[in-house]
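Hey, can you fold this one?
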Amino acid sequence: MNGESAGGGGISIVPNASGAKIYNVSVGKSAPEWIKTNKKSLKYDNNYRRRIELLQDFDFPCTSSKVQVSNNGEFIISTGTYPPMLKIHECSQLTLKVSRNLTADVINFNILSNDYSKLALLKSDRSLEFHAQFGRYHIARIPKFGRDLVYDSFGCDMIVVGASSDAWRINLETGTFLQPYSTNLSEINVVSINPVHHLLAFGGDDGSLEFWDPRARRPVCSKDFYSDLPFASQDQINATSVQFDQYNGLNFALGTSSGHCLLYDMRMSQPSIVKDHQNDLPLKKIIFAPNNQILTSDSKIVKIWDKTNPKGTLTGSIEPSCSINDVSIVGDSGLILMACEQPKLMAYFIPSLGPAPKWCSFLDSLTEELEEDKQTLYDDYKFVTNEDLKRLGLERMIGSHYLKPYMHGYFMDIKLYNKFKAIADPFEFENYRKEKIQQKIEEERETRIAVKKKAPKVNAKMAASILQEGAEKEEKGKKSTTTEVLSDPRFKALFENPDFEVDESDDRFKATRNIKLKKEAQLTDFFDMVKEQDNDPEEGKEAGIDIFGEDDEGKSDDSEGESEKYIRPAKKKVVVENKDKQKGKKVNMYEVKEGHQFQVGTMNASAQRAKKLPFGQRVKELNESSKAAGEITKEGRGSLQISFTPSEEKQKGRKSQEQRQEWASRISERRGIKELKLPKIGGKRRRG
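Sure. Predicted structure:
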């Protein structure tokens, strides 16, 4: 919640979900900022006339780091940068009393007296600087860089802790260093003292807390608070703030680096309340406020909650627009001062914490006026007319104490009205919700701008075909899921990585393309167009091709009007005739490419099924089919295959027939002895 939600000057109400009234009294510009703009126009500026400036020059050039109120409540001391400086404001005069420049940034400071006359400043250059009423009094060096300090009024000792296990002591009465307190902590982040019995508490980096008695100068006990937090370990949790309850002296609160606040009773070992800021930021400040309230602050938000409630009920929260460095309360009042990462110090007034301080008592009257302006008559009632009562069926309630007559209707308790309205029309809210949703959708449609999607760099044709296919399905009223491929992260590389680009000239791509695309590309993939020649019938006949659809003997088949295709294996040429050749349309000739065979048609269902079968089953079926004689099988692309097995008898008969034919040819070829024309021996020829 932003503490500067209201614009302009004056006072503004901080939005708060818990219901507590929180007022921002530092809204608007300060006086120097107004003067820098234009002096002549200020008297006509309504914001300038309504401005509220609690203290004059209550700001720093860059940022403010720390702010505290003196014990008597008359002075406000603050530090900031740049340059590092200290400012003291006198509340009774509402003005700046003194401003002092410093040599280094202030880590923390402590007020040693009731007013501003004695101050101790712990600076970032490992020095401890003491200020009196007239100015700087003394500077002391400490062994290591300091982180926090506290003043023990019982022994007049200034105790400083830092990046060491020792707590250094400086006695302000003698002006000497005393023997330090040697703790069991590796490093000490914070230190606090109980104002009732002066018990010291040291918080370190190892998730533990040590208590020391300054009178005995020895540790009393130690507490491992990291065990009281869920899912916490000793190495992860550090103590960032410790504060004792100044009202009873029995309670103390511990802030951790994880953003938790633990409220302990010194008579118990377990925390009574554990609150989480839920920001995972270390707590910077814890304050016990009046009316049993506790303020806890990190760099983002200040939360106010009730310590008497076992659950720690939240009563208010303040979230400024900048980071918070320090928080302080003016006495027992409801005025909260806040040092932030901005030049101006913030001031908030919470009436539930307490009244306004004496020096700014006008805040009470201002807040009362704001409350009176917002009060309305019958705030918790609903005005209804006779028609409304008739619609709800509540005519019988007229004259009862549930309805208060007013003008032309009645006032009715809002809770009772909502109950009867829900009974009369239980679906009214649903209908109202649907109407609002539909109205919102229509408004978005009117203001919608059609975004043109850029084509992907890789596989742009594939993406275009996918979008076209999805659009065609949507036009037919079918739900299309193909376009989801373009937005699916699993296929993102397909349209971005060049390694996945499809090579459309590859034969494997052509074999796996769509059937429609295959048919379109079939003619040019397997044929080359023959260049146009003179249509001479004689040349066509010499080539063995009849261009006009006639055979070699000049006979034409007029019964078939369809185009015919002639395949000549010797020439590997195909003539494609047009149906309307009588109209004089051009005839294109194609030649089969080298390495291809022209086949018509596609695989039938049986061939496709056989192709999907395993190799062993295909061999088995082939053996079974080979047993049948004369079986005709249709192969792919329109070809036929005849397989048969001759029987043994037929084979024997065929063999014997072939032998007889061979014998007959031999007999017919046998020549007689007369054809030899042998000479006669003894008047007789030899017998052949």
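The longest strand covers residues 63-69. Let me know if you want another pass with a different chain boundary.
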